[in-house]
Amino acid sequence: MLPDSLRPYALLARVDKPIGTALLLWPCLWSTALAASQPGGGWDYLAGAPDPSLIALFTVGSFVMRGAGCTINDMWDKDFDRNVHRTKNRPLASGKLSTNRAIAFLGLQLSAGLGVLLSLPNMQYCLILGISSLPLVATYPLMKRYTNWPQLFLGMTFNWGAFMGWAASHGSLDPSVVLPLYASGVCWTLVYDTLYAHQDKVDDAKLGLKSTALHFGERTKPTLYGFSSMTFIGWNLAGFGAGFSEPVYYIGSFAEIQKI
Q1: Are residues 229 and 22 in contact, defined by beta-carbon separation less than 8 angstroms?
Q2: How much is the pTM?
Q3: Residue 48 — very low, low, confident or very high, per pLDDT cuts 50/70/90?
Q4: In the prediction, which pLDDT does 47 show?
Q5: How far, in Å, are 66, 154, 218, 227, 228 from residue 145 at the CA level?
Q6: Which stretches within 13-51 are classed as H helix?
Q7: Is the torsion defined by CA of 113, 115, 117, 121 positive or negative?
Q8: Is 178 within 8 Å of 32 (Cβ atoms)?
Q9: CB under 8 Å to 98, separation ≥6 — which residues?
Q10: Which terminus, N or C, of the chain has the lesser number of Cβ atoms within 10 Å?
């Protein structure tokens, strides 16, 4: 559907794989929903619903910044990607796109991300908070070279939205809500990205790269059960911090954790 000249940029940003955008968006939505809720005040769902315009901004921001993260990742990893079956056809690894063009594209992506930040409510607070995530965005692709826990750094990056939703809604952070919410998201990321990393573990081992899939090995299943339990605990602590006493929240949390 895209002209041939634009296809490498779309593939670089993983436009064809929207699950990454969804995974980045979910923590934003969790935080925004908790910030907009009115626990103890009855069940007027419309009165406690998040602002649709805020949800739209986070959706656009997640799409743009997920794409920027993929561009940064592929710039760092292009030499490795050439030797991994799953990634050898990516635009930079295959030579379909030059590094200079990728850098220019990254500039456009980051400019769009800045535009979203500047459009958020409580803009000054959100701007500082959003910019403070950039060191993680820029360096998490490198962690597979140095630590057995690159998925931990991915989780720290991908779940920054747990802070952003509350900050955009209130112009502040409530540690009793956002810290357990952030921690639960990090644990959740460790679960899904460890499973994802198992498909590359043979190539990663040959290249000297590290991952939790290789690190956990035969202990993967019980370890991920542990992280799933920590995700569940974090969701419940966040709800408790937000003032939820009604059982519906905790029943919903239990129902969701069954899907992980």
Answers
A1: no
A2: 0.91
A3: low
A4: 56
A5: 21, 14, 22, 23, 26
A6: 19-36
A7: negative
A8: no
A9: none
A10: N
